[in-house]
Amino acid sequence: MADHDIPDHYLDGYAALLADASATGRRLTRDELDTRRALGEQAADAGYGLRALVAAHLAGARLHWPTGALAPDSVMAAVEQAVDAFAEGYERAQRQAMRQEEAARREFIDDLLYGRSDMGQLAERAERFGLRLAYEHAVAVAEGEFAYDEGDAVARSVEQAMIGRFGDRDILLTTKDGRLVCVAPGDQDEILSFFAKQAYAATDGGHVAIGRPQPGPGGVVQSYEEALSTLELAHRLEFDDPVLRSADLLVYPVLTRDRQAMADLVRTTLGPLQSARGGAQPLIDTLTAYFDTGCVAAEAARRLKLSVRALTYRLARIHKLTGADATDPVSRYTLQTAVIGARLLDWPDRPL
């Protein structure tokens, strides 16, 4: 709304206040201050700018300045009080509007990420926040050592970098459960890649997971849940990569889809390792390092801070206990799958 042509009723009683202050030297009463505050709230709700409203008050003071004022200082004090109370009411209305907007935005984000609302209504609400849910979207989630809120310096720095690079085109940046979240069009991977880079830096080396693009209003929920599952995988399997994509890790959900079958595989294949001196964990760590390095014994030994001879001895011990040879391509797949299952199921720390 244009700020010029401020309606006169926002200055109701103003001239009389100045005249009375000139005649008596008094200050404004509590009721008079409350009236000015109420007028300020009304002006804010109507969409007028505060600078134009203050200018209208100053112009009104010049126009209605009492002729031959007996107490000009008192008149000026009345102007200051009136303008201050009016601005206070205006700012109070603005804060209330911001709180309502923030509450509406938070409710929308919760419904969007949890899929708790009617999808048709959700799509309509999304347009208010710059999203067109009829299209494909993908979600990236970042977490660090600490929990983050939207007002935190970390969240603000990422948001500023994103807006500086892409504007606010079809992007939703928020926080959820202490994590940074970015929702972007599924065909604009550069946005999520840039978010991942900024979030990794801002969280001082946290993890970022990017879900696959999914269509429709429910696609945001699916991509968000994929990103969360990928973060959980990163913790369980101790992945070092700072940025992980769900599309690159689809084998893991497949492996864990039948938990009982995976538990049976772990128990049958790796169970005999529990009889080793020191238990199963050191030998599982040996297999993990061996497979993670592409079955290069020298590199695996370096990671484990062992000699190659000691590593070779451990592999031979595993072969003897389990009957499976990690150096044999046929046995290797079964052992590697069982090791992945053990890490996903927290075995042997947690019984199967």
Automatic annotation (TrEMBL):
InterPro entries: CdaR-like_regulators (IPR051448), CdaR_GGDEF (IPR041522), PucR_C-HTH_dom (IPR025736), PucR_C-HTH_sf (IPR042070). Residues 115-233 form the CdaR GGDEF-like domain. Residues 283-339 form the PucR C-terminal helix-turn-helix domain. It holds the Pfam family GGDEF_2. Belongs to the CdaR family. This is Helix-turn-helix domain-containing protein.
